Every structure is written in C-alpha cells, then in structure tokens.
Amino acid sequence: MTTIRETLTALEAEAMAAVAAAADQQALEQVRVRFLGRKGALSTILRGLADLDPADRPAVGKLANDVKQRLEAAFEGRREALEAAALAAATAAERLDVTLPGRPVPSGRLHPSTQVLRRICQIFADMGFQIYRSPDVETDEMNFEMLNIPAHHPARDMWDTFYTTTEGVLLRTHTSPGQIRAMRQYCPEPIRVILPGMCYRYEQITARSEIQFHQVEGLAVGRQVTMTDLKGTLVSFAHRMFGPTRQVRFRASHFPFTEPSAEMDVECMICEGKGCTVCKHSGWLEILGCGMVHPVVLQNGGYDPAVHSGFAFGMGPERITMLRHRIEDIRYFWKNDLRFLEQF
Ligand code: 2NL
User: Fold this and answer.
1) How far is 8 from 155, CA to CA, in rounded Å?
2) Which residues lie below 8 Å from residue 271, measured CB to CB, with a gap of 6+?
3) d(CA 265, CA 268)
4) Pairing relation of β-strands 258-267 and 248-255?
5) S-S: 268 plus which of 68, 279, 303, 306, CB 3.0-4.6 Å?
6) Rounded distance, CA 216 to CA 232, Å?
C-alpha cells in the first residue's frame, strides 16, 4: 500500500512535469486548478491528513506544505516566463518602428504675388512708410480727374476701364486714387504711405497683360521733400529687394501725375548685367515708375505746393515676380495650377 508520503512525492513530480509542459497561460491555469485548486489533488490529500495517526500528522503536514510552496513557486515562475514569451510574440507580430519619419502633411503657402507684395511692403515699412488701404471700387473723379488725367487726356487710352452701371463709378485702374485719399486724410501733416492692392483694366488677356493685377504705390509728402529723397529711398529699396551690390539707374519718363518723372532700372538678375533674352541684351530691367508729385495732384490732396512737395512711385509685383523667376506668361498667376503655384 502506498503511503501518503509517496503519494505527495508522486504528485509533486507529476505537477512539476505538467507545469513545465503547459504551452500557454490558459493551459497553465488548468494545471493550477487541477493540482492546487480548492477541489484539486493537493487539497484532497490534505483533507486525508485527518485520518492519520496523530503522531505522523506534523511531519506529513510539513511535507504537504513544502510541496505546496514548491509547486506555487514553480507556477509563478512558469507564469512569468509564459507572459514574457506572449509579450515578445505580440511585439514581434505588431512591430511598429516609431523612428520612421512621418508622412509629410501637405501645407499651403502664400501666392507668389502675395509673397512679393509683402516683401515690398516690409522693406518700405522698415523705412517708415505706413500701409494704407483703400477701396477697389472708385469714382471716375478719384481714379482720373484728381490725378491730372482729364476726360480727353490721351493717357486715358492706356487705361481702358471696367465701368459699373452706376454713372461715374468704376474699378480702379491703379492704386493712385488711394494716395489722394491718404493725402486728404492726413494733410497738412507729412505722410509716408505704401499702398498695395488689386487693379483692373479692361484689356485683351494675353501672355503680357491681365485684366486684374497687383500694384504697389508709395508716396511721401512733406516740407522740402526732394528728388534726392526719391533716389535714396528707391535705391535702398532696390538694394534690399535685389541685393546690395545691384547697379541701379534712373531714366527720364512721363506720367500725368508726376513732374519730373522717371523710370528705375536694376541690373538684370538673370545674367547679372551681361545681357540675356530676359533683359533683351541690355543688361537692365525696368522695375518701377516714379517722380515728384505734380503740383496739381498735391493740391487735389489738400497740400499747398508752395509749402509741401512729395515723391511717388509705382510698381507691379507680378512683373517683378516674372522677371525674377523667368515666368513667360502672366496668365499663370490666375490659373490656379498647383504645378505652377507649388514652385514658390
Ligand atoms: C508704374 C508707375 C507710378 C505714381 C505711380 C502717383 C500717385 C500720386 C501722385 C503721383 Cl497720388 N504719383 N503714383 C507715380 C509715378 C509712377 O507708377 O509703372 N506703375 C506700375
């Protein structure tokens, strides 16, 4: 007849083998219930202790407890090993390389005209010019009359205009009417303003002309403002916009609202003045028009030409962008073709 000691020893060996053989946590739990559970093999044996000779009970009881402790330790060790293995398997299966660079998020950007417009405004703002905004819808009087362009002046042929159904109301053909508004608002105080904005002309759309485009105009009025101030301001602008070593030249010109008038050229930025197709082999690019404000226009702005004088200039950011990037068709600016826009 087998003794209870032999039963315990056999049970321990069997349980240890079962623990080692448990392939996963579920199987291990089944083994635990079978050997260590409340209705398990060990509990059954421990209940049988009551039938033993009281003299044998302490020694057998101690053995049973030792077996129980060793089994529990074995279960715990196996449980940890299986858990670690399960984690390792899951990590390998769901491998995620957190060091991989993310997918780029497509980001928008400013339109090339806006970028150039802002750059121009920033340079003049640094020289003390304030940004002045005025309406796109203007009166004939502000757009032409006040700028010394009377009804039958030949210059009006150059600015074919979008007229509204309201008599005498039109889309501005240049930002200049805003300069009149600025002068009237601030006179007789001295002013330095820069006027960026959209202009409209009723023209055939071609590679060189659009019906809407931007203009940036500037105006400085005060006592003893001279042509020297005009040249110094515009040369500084050209050096910041196109590079500090860029050559600049002024040529005489004509505008109805300035006298004298001039055009400013800068050394071609494509060929560095050597001559190329962009500058038509002259080495120079025309960048802006300028001049001393015509006394009649000063007066229309509310200033006394005997006391005040001023200089003004105007330029087209699209034209500058085209020269800079050798864009050969102005229509790209309004085409909304991402292949064009994404290059800037
Ligand atoms: C150009 C030339 C110019 C002005 C604009 C101006 C405005 C007032 C008085 C006097 Cl209120 N002048 N503006 C002066 C000279 C030239 O623009 O080629 N623009 C694209």
Assistant:
1) 118
2) 278, 279, 283
3) 9
4) antiparallel
5) 279
6) 18
Give the pLDDT of residue 1: 53
Cβ 258 vs Cβ 179: under 8 Å: no
Identify the band that residue 263 occupies on the pLDDT scale cut at 50, 70 and 90.
Answer: very high
Q: Is 194 in the pocket of ligand 1 (CB under 6 A)?
A: no
pLDDT tier at 50 (50, 70, 90 boundaries)? confident
Averaged pLDDT score across all residues of the chain: 91
Which residues lie closer than 8 Å to 2 by C-beta, 6 or more apart?
A: none
Whether the CB of 312 sits within 6 Å of ligand 1: yes
* Residue 293 identity (one-letter amino acid): V
Produce one character per residue of 43-65: b if its CB has 16 or more CB atoms within 10 Å, e if not: eebbeeeeeeeeeeeeebeeebe
Instruction: Please tell me the pTM assigned to this model.
Output: 0.72
In this structure, the chain runs to a length of 344
Distance 69 CA to ligand 1 centre (A): 99
Q: What ranges in the chain are assigned the alpha helix state H?
A: 4-21, 25-36, 41-47, 57-93, 112-126, 140-143, 176-186, 227-242, 295-300, 317-325, 332-335, 338-341
pLDDT in tens, 57-103: 888 888 888 888 999 998 999 999 999 988 988 888 888 888 989 89
Residue 63 alpha carbon to ligand 1 centre in Å: 109
What are 303-337's pLDDT values in tens digits?
999 999 999 999 999 999 988 888 888 999 999 99
Q: What is the pLDDT of residues 30-41, one digit of tens each?
A: 988 988 888 888
Nearest CA to ligand 1 atom 20: 315
- Find the 245 Cα to ligand 1 centroid distance in Å: 26
